[in-house]
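Record copied across here:
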Amino acid sequence: MSKRRVFDIDFPDEEPAPEQPSAEPVGRRGPMASAIGENADALRERQQAEAAIREENDRLAHEHVRLKKAGLVTDLIPIDAIRAEKLARDRKPGRDEELEELKLSIREVGLSNPIRVEQDGDTYELVQGYRRLTAYRELFEETGEEIYATIPAGLTAKGETLETLYRRMVDENMVRKDISFAEMAELARAYVQDPDTATDDIDDAVKALFGSAGRQKRSYIKHFVTLLDAIGSHLKFAPQIPRALGLQLAKRLSEEDGLAPQIRHRLTASFVSTAEGELEVLKGFATPSKPGKQAAAPSKPTAKTTFRQTVPAGTVRCAASDGRVELRMKRDFSEVDRQRMEAAVAAFFRELDPDQD
């Protein structure tokens, strides 16, 4: 009988710790896992790029709004898409003597100072730059060159008040050396008569429009308003009236009842056709008659009535004075049929004088 060998086996007191997985993946990833990982990485990169683009677009949009509010956004605007109807202009009638020089400058060096417009749908309302726009329109008509079919324009943010737009136009024109007191006074009168402005008082209008001018200058403008109210309808060359002559006439008109009809009669009877001739007539009324000289018979003093009337078509501003009635509202009355207009005028006078029917 054979003997078996006995071996001593030592067992550890504690079980051995399990093996830690290797930090490195064992073996290679399969094709499907690699494709999924690559797609996930590409998706993350795309999302990050899109977020960066959205952030940049938001920044640019806010910057665009800020620049537009400041009037610093400029674009090329078709000249036939620009209207100059919203604001009454202080332009004197007739041909602008300096327009040809401006056109020559534009042809040689371009337009250095863009006009300013307010966008209104597919069209634009002119705020500043009437002469520049006129020059471009004439250049395009004369040459047919497409470069003059559009004009550089600063875009004013939509929503500015009418008073602010008027003030922008006035402040630009105040730097013109040739703007006359009669033109400034005419603009103040138009501001009062505009049914969309907030005042019926000429003092408020002058203050609103010419706030950057000195007190003395605003006083001169109001004197010229007095002059135009009295005889403006009979003046052909009002912008040519010098400041001193205008102030003398305004003073006499405010002090002497019946002087305005005399001046209007003399202007009509003289048939003046030049600025010089008109000034000679006015100079004859600038100083009081010498003592002992027979004065003209006093006439009915000039009176003026202004009011607003709300009608189905909107608000109309009315002004009535000696020999003149004005109705102003935002409507093109030239589009009204002539027969309807004649019937309306006849009805107007029938209502004024019902006893004469």
About this structure: The radius of gyration is 39 Å. The CA atoms of residues 52 and 95 lie 56 Å apart.
